[in-house]
Amino acid sequence: MNLPVLTPGVSDTEQTKRLIGNVFSYIVSLLVGIFIIAIISLLVIRNNVNSISDKHDEFLLKKALDIHQENIRSHLKDNAEWGDAYKNLHEKINLNWAWDKQNLGKSLYDNFGYEGVFVLSPEGITRYSVLDGNLRLQDLDSWLGKSTRENLLKEVSNNNGMPVSALTLIDSVPAIVSAAWITADNDSSVIARPGKFSIMVFIEKLTAEKLLAIGDDSGIKNVRVLPDAMRSQAENFVDFPLNINKGVVRIAWESENPGQALIIYFLPLLILSVVLMACMTIVLMRHIMQKARINDEHTFLLDQARLKLITSEKRFRDVSETTSDWLWETDLSLKIIWLSERFSTVTGFDNSEWTGRYLHELFPSRKASFLECISQREASGQFAFKNCPYINSQQSTSYCTLLAKFVVQPDGTVVIRGAATDVTIEVEATKRVQFLSRHDELTGLPNRYQIKEFLAGELNKDEAGHYPFSMICLDLDKFKPVNDVFGHSTGDALLGEVSSRLKGCIRSGDFVARQGGDEFMILLANTSQISQIDDVCQRIVNELNRPFSVNGNDVTIGVSMGIALAPKDSNSANDLLRFADIALYQAKQSDRNKWVYYQQDMSEKLTERRKMESELRAAIKEDQLYLVYQPRFNLKNSKVDAVEALVRWQHPERGNLMPDQFIPLAEETGLIINLSNWVLHKACTDALEKLPGLSVSVNISPVEFQASDLAERVKAILQATGLAPARLEIEVTENVTLSEPEKTSQIMKALKQMGVRILIDDFGTGYASLSYLRKFQFDGLKLDKSFIFSMGDSQQNLSVVEKIIDLGKAYSMEVTAEGVETAEQLNFLKNNKCDEVQGYFIGKPVAISELSLSLAD
Q: Quick one: what percent of the chain has pLDDT higher than 90?
C-alpha cells in the first residue's frame, strides 16, 4: 500500500484531511478485502471438511459391505465343506435331511436373512432351492432375473471351489450372491466320487431395512439405494457407485455436514471482528485527526500500521495453507514456539505448559520419524504424519494427524508451522470394527469365528498329535427364566459374570470363547489325562452353581458340557465342534450339571432320535395316530358312565407303538402340544357322535401346564366340536403340582370354571404332598393299579387301599380304582365304597366301534 505524498503549497489542514481521507479509504477497502477472503477461505474449509467426512463415511460403508460378504462366504464354507452335505446334496438330494431336519432349510432365512438358497448340479441345473424361507424348486437365473449362473460357476472353478461372492441386482434391489463347491472336507467317513462338484449358493438381498442396519452399525444415517432419477432431488445426501454384475447402483447416505458447524461458529466471530476493527479504525482516525499536525508523529504511526499489516497478512496466509483443528510452530529442534488456543480445547493441556517444550514429548512414538524428516528437509518442503498417538490430560490415548511445512522468516531463520487434526473417533471406530469381527461384543470373549481359526491352527501344527487337547461346549441351564423374569439387561449382566468365572476356572494356555446366546466354548491345551479335563469341568460346575448377584437379584443357574478330544475323536475343526455339540446334547438329556464325552454311537442315536421326531411330526399330520377307549364302571349305579381315551401310533415300519414309546419324545421336542390337541379334538368328536351320555377323559402331560394357553386350547376345542364341557375330564399326574404350582393352580381354576372335571391320575406314585389335594381341589382321584395288584399280598396292603379311599372321600373326591382284574378285587372295592373301577375285568382298551357294540349289548 502506497501512502499519499504531502504536497508543497497546500495548507496543513487540507493535507491532513486529504491524507486521512485516503488512509481511511485504503483501510476500509482492506477490511472489505480481508472479510471477502476470510469468507471464501471459510467456505473452502467447510467444503474440505465435508469432503473428508464423506470420504471417511464411504470408506466405513464399503468396509462394512466387504465384511458382510466375508461373513456370508464364511457361513457358506461351514455348510458346503461338510461330509453330510456331500452325501445328502451332491451324491443325491435328500429332502428329509435338507428341509425337514433344517440342515439347509427355513432356518437360513429366519436366522440369517438368506432369501435364496440353491444347490446346483455341476452343470448348473437347480436341484434344490429354498426361496424366502419356502421350499420351491426354481432356476437360479430365472429367480435372479439375469444370466449369472455361468459367470458364477466359472468364478467358483477359478477359486478351486472355495467360496466366492459377487454383487448383483434382484428386482432393482442389490444382493450378495455367494457360491462354493459342496465337498466332504476332511470327513473320513465320506468317499468322494470322481468328477465335478455340486455347487451351493447363498443369496442375501440388501433390502432397505438391511442397508439401514448396516449403516447404523457404522454410525452412518439413512443408508439407501439411490436411483439415478432421484440424485438431483436428494438434498444433503452423498453417494458412491457400487459396481455389480452387469450394472452399477448408487449407495447414498445422509451427510453429517460437519463443515456447517464451522460456518455457524466462525462466521459470527468474523463479523464481530470486522465490526470491532471498523470501530477501532474510526477511533484511530479521530486520534490521527487530532495528532495530524505533527508530521513526524503522523509518519511514525503510518509506518507502524504498515508493519503490523504486513505481519498480519503473512500470518493469515500461512494459516490458510494449513487449516485444521489446532495450530503449532516450532524451531528446527522441534521446540514449541507457539500454540493456538484450540490446542487446550482438544488436548486439555494449558498452552503455557507446552510452550518451550519439544513436540516429540507430546508424540514420543514418532520422535525418530520427526527427526529423520527434519534431517532430510528442503527449505520449502512439507510433511505429514498420520494417526499419531498421544496421552491427553485425561490420561487416555488420543490420535492426531500432523500436517506441517518449513517456513523461512524475514530475518532468515527457518521455523516449522503446522496443524493437528484430531482423528481419535475415526481410529477408534476402525479398531472397534476389527475387534468386533473376531470377538463377542457383550463379553469381550473371542467369538466362534476366532475359535475355529485358532482350532484349525492348532490342528495344523506338526506337533499337534503329541500334545492332545480338548474342546468343551457349555450350555447354561435355567438361563431362559432369568431373561423372562428379570429382563434381558440382567441376562446380559449374568453372561458377563459367567465369562469372568469361566476365565477363572481354566489354566494358563487354555482358551475360552462365547459361541452365542448362553453357549460357551473352552479349549483345554495339552490334556493327555482325562482326570485333567474332569478337574476343570468340576471347577466349572462348582463355580457356576454358586449363586450370582446381578442387578440386585440373586440368580442360580447350572451348566451342561459336551467334550470332544483331539486327535482321538477327529483332526477336523468342524468335526470337533460338531462332536462337542452332540455330546452337549446328550448331557442335557441326562441330569443337569454334568459333562459327557463324545462317543461314536452318539451321532447315530441323535440321528435316530431326529428321525423319530420327524416321523412323529408326520404322524400327527397324516393320521397315523388312533384312539382306543377303556370303560370306567360306576359301582353306585352299576353301569359304565365314562371312558378313558388312550392314544396309539400305527407306525408304517415299527408297527403299533404304545404311548410310553413316543410320549416322552413329544414332551422333549414340544410336539406334545400338537399331539394333545389332536387327542382332545378326536376324543371330543367321538364322544359327541358315538358315545351319547358318556364322559370322556384325556391324559394331559404336566409339561402342557407350563404353556399358559392350555385353558384357551381346551375351550377352543370344545367350541369347535360342540361337546358339553361337563362331559370332558382331564387326567393329570401328581407331578403337575411340583413345577410352578401357582401358575398350575390358575390354569386348573380356569378349566373348572368352564365345567371341565380334573382327575389326579396314578395317585400314590408321585411326589406331591397331601396338602396339594386341598389346594388344587381335584374332582376325582384315580388309585394307581400297583395298589390293586398288591391287595392279595397282605392285610396291610388292604388297609392302605381302604385308607386311600377314605382320604379321597374326606376331600370330597370321587375315587376310581385302576387295574381291577378279578371279581374279588371288585367286591372288596365295592364293599369299601369305592365310586368307580377300571381294568381288564371291566373292559380292555378297544376301538370306538368295538366299544359301542359292547355297550349296546
A: 6
